[in-house]
Amino acid sequence: MVEQAKTRLVAGPFNRVEGDLEVRLDVVDGHVGRAWVNAPLFRGIERVLEGRTPMDALVIAPRICGICSVSQSHAAALALGGVMGMAPTHNGQVATNLIVATENLADHLTHFHLFFMPDFARPDYEGRRWYAQAHERFAALRGSAVRGILQTRALALHVMGILAGHWPHTLAIQPGGLSRGVEKQDCVRLSGILGGVRAALEETLFGARLEEVAALSGVEDLQRWAEGRRGSDFSLFLRIAQDLALQSSGRSYDRFLSFGAYPGFGSDPGQRHWRSGIFETGAVRTLNMDDVSEDHTFSHMADMGRPLPPFEGATEPHMRANTAYSWSKAPRMAGLACETGALARQLMAGQPLVRALVARDGGNVLSRVVARLVEVARLVPMMEQWVRALRPGEAWCHSHTGDIPDGRAIGMTEAARGALGHWLCVEKGLIARYQIVAPTTWNFSPRDAAGVEGPLEYALKGARVHEGEQTPLSVQHIVRSFDPCMACTVH
Amino acid sequence: MAGLETFYDVMRRQGITRRSFIKYCSLTAAALGLGPEFVPQIASAMETKPRLPVLWLHGLECTCCSESFIRSAHPLVKDVVLSMISLDYDDTLMASAGHQAEAILDEVMEKYHGNYILAVEGNPPLNEDGMYCIVGGKPFVEQLKKVASGAKAIISWGSCASYGCVQAARPNPTQATPVHKVILDKPIIKVPGCPPIAEVMTGVITYMLTFDRLPELDRQGRPKMFYSQRIHDKCYRRPHFDAGQYVESFDDEGARKGYCLYKVGCKGPTTYNACSTVRWNDGVSFPIQSGHGCIGCSEDGFWDKGSWYARLQNVGGFGVEASADKVGMVAAGAVGAGLAVHAAISALSRARYKGDDDQ
Questions:
Q1: Alpha-carbon span A300 to A315, nearest angstrom
Q2: Does A397 contact B281 at a Cβ distance shorter than 8 Å?
Q3: ipTM > 0.90 (yes/no)
Q4: Domain A6-490 classified CATH 1.10.645.10?
């Protein structure tokens, strides 16, 4: 094969992603040949946690990220609860779900309106039939959708204010429940807030009732629906996606991982409202957490000789300029790279439209964004039900006295961006080891010892690069379709 | 500075009505603790002064400061402040992501040399020659020094920039270092908190935009208008502290009655911040209202002062009545006395903030 027109690009630093990101690209004949994804930042939170009183993880771990702090806090509380053998009270569980859901909802809205859609308002797309509308709605900072959604988001975060005191870096979630109880008047206020959020979303984002969007069941169904809702922002996105063929952009391994979202309440608290597992080639597999390991071959981390499960893992930064290219480790499930996020969650939850889209074209820019919006439409009605499931006046937190026993446990939850796990080992009453594997660590991992690329690196292959593009638009769409959080990735 | 728009011009261009502008001036006066007689003064300043350039840099951090900032209570204040500090995205920052953005940074630095405000979120790590935080292929500490060299004054957003915060907690693996230990020759305004309260952030910026000078600072370099009182001084649970009524564990009888959280680790008595007055998320609540003690996140070194959940056996043991100035004096040694309080700042603008665009 003749190697022609091969060039190397360094794309980044990226704006409109959380944290710092750089992507190196080999470009061959106008397409990405190979990609290397680099997280150029390291903070060392796991090292800070070691040697401390276990409960202090509730304060330190959320500081990994100002965007997903509640998810980090939830994972820490679950890990501690695992070691202590403690499950939250009914009210604690319901309220925690409400708090986590609020953060995920806010993150999805931010991603769509502030990070993802503004790309289509760039002058590069001038001349497209949908450009005028996209520009009017989504031009960065000026778009008419921006101000509205910031207000809706701020309103949604009042749920956080009422239940958890403040955000970001909420403190209220405890292993035994919540540090605050709910009164009847709180439930009334929560219902009012969610009603306002619903109205705003139905008005502009969907132009339809949330239930109608949540019930979309297939590809043709979606097309029909979009035709009838041309004024809505979701419909605008679908038109753009069709015109730019976003369904054939950014396909990765089509192996989807979810830790399961929103622990249930009632008879089996182990159950989750959206179940955990791996979704691949149309089938669901049960998770085996012993299969998780992290590989350091291409990370600026001390070489451990082999990929280690997080319970044995370590975070020792070590500059190795010869091979390593990222601060991120490479998490693998039984040696395989997995994609995680709203798409994985909705596949595992069995949402028919999302399953149909993936059956047709796999995971791609279109299906990732649709899954996020369908999730928004499903989440708000669930939250309304949870408010009704609160029991004012009843217990909200189990108390615990004395020291935390020695032991180990995994705190598993779903952040907006996907599967989040905290592996905690307590020895002699102190944190002996604390390993965190975040959603974007899975999605934006570097290569492993076998040379297997991370999901984004794989997804970027074949992306179109136009003449003179330094940070190609197609690459930006693919990168942002994962909704990366780099602060979490490297922690 | 000839030919520059005034704040008022900018606001009108952003679609803000005259009526909203006057409302904004009233809100600003109230937020800054000024009486109604200041409203015309603020309005006049906004109508006649050229806008102030602000450059916003990100080091080692978690973006919680930005997240807090874009959620400030009054949508109007937030819109106005955001539009003012992010102006040049409309005017000049037509660059795409990446190296073009860096070039624009250089251009603004040159054009407004000596006249812009540098706002820093996060801090530079110094270990391994700064390799733990790389921006545009170079260590963040280099970018920070470069941009600081032409700044009129620096705002250290949050506890990371002010004190080091979580990544500087023992053992501080990256040697994360607060801004004032790297930049020694500029006035620095510290706005600590993890994150700081949105209204405090907009308040500080608005004050500087409006009055063309730094707010009055305490000995640690914090604006006195927001950091001169302890959480404890204005805490709504204070009567229970005075009456010796305490929560012993979350959800006990005391918790249900809303007693004082001091015994479950509350650091309100030693923390200088405005949470108990301004509150969070549109004044809805703050940590103590959610039944959780204050963790003291706006205090220097709060990560390494013992567990947040330690039960206190005998209450009233530490010097909780020390005055702001006493605490300030102790800490002043580290800060250095070179803070130019009331330094005059002239004007002009630009911001980099995550979530903004390009194109």
A1: 10
A2: no
A3: no
A4: yes
